[in-house]
Design brief:
216 residues, alpha/beta, 7-stranded mixed beta sheet, 8 helices
């Protein structure tokens, strides 16, 4: 049996899409895959009597753990209807110390395959792995990352909606304080911009099959 830890972050407004997302994950799991699911949420949320809490009653290949994120990012910048729970992914190595490597996913996703091939990739020399948004072919993106983020697109500009997180290296290199500091600023792409700045040159590019959208 292969255990894959995966993290989602959201509040009460996304219970239904999250339930559908997680169900699709479990429906498409390999017979030897077990998902250790973590849901990070604000202290105002209670999922105990929701469809989320009942999912393990229908799927034997998972466990769901709810963890409260207290007093973090309460004044962080919000835009495009994306709440401060988006920033919680920045704290995964702290909040989930059980694993050296974890997957992260937004909940506006419908999984169509098992995630073992992504979890098994070697990212020992990287902080994360993700999908580049085609920055090498998109002058608008190149201009944005240079003028707004102060980085060069040559190492890519990565989506933050689906990630493989190297928690071990992030903790060893004391990266989370840098995340927290930048979260005080108003970046248009919020956590995505922060990850691309702090992890510049240390994000491994994955196939677009892992996470593809039209952004920027």
């Amino acid at each position: 049996m292969t255990t894959i830890p995966i993290v989602f972050t959201f509040d009460n407004n996304l219970i239904m899409p999250a339930s559908i997302c997680i169900s699709s994950l479990l429906m498409n799991a390999n017979t030897d895959t077990y998902y250790d699911i973590f849901i990070l949420h604000p202290e105002t949320c209670d999922f105990s009597n929701t469809t989320l809490a009942n999912i393990p009653n229908y799927y034997s290949n998972c466990k769901i753990t709810f963890r409260t994120v207290e007093h973090e990012f309460v004044t962080a910048y919000e835009i495009r209807g994306i709440t401060t729970t988006a920033y919680y992914r920045l704290l995964i190595p702290e909040i989930i110390p059980e694993y050296n490597k974890v997957l992260y996913s937004d909940v506006d996703v419908f999984f169509r395959e098992d995630l073992s091939r992504y979890y098994d990739i070697d990212i020992d020399d990287y902080y994360m792995a993700g999908v580049d948004n085609g920055s090498a072919l998109r002058p608008k993106v190149q201009k944005y990352v240079k003028e707004k983020l102060g980085i060069d697109h040559k190492y890519g500009h990565f989506y933050s909606g689906n990630l493989v997180v190297n928690s071990k290296k992030i903790k060893e290199d004391n990266i989370i304080p840098k995340f927290r500091e930048l979260a005080k600023r108003d970046f248009h792409q919020q956590d995505m911009d922060i990850i691309n700045i702090v992890c510049y040159g240390k994000i491994k590019a994955l196939s677009p099959a892992f996470c593809l959208t039209n952004f920027l």
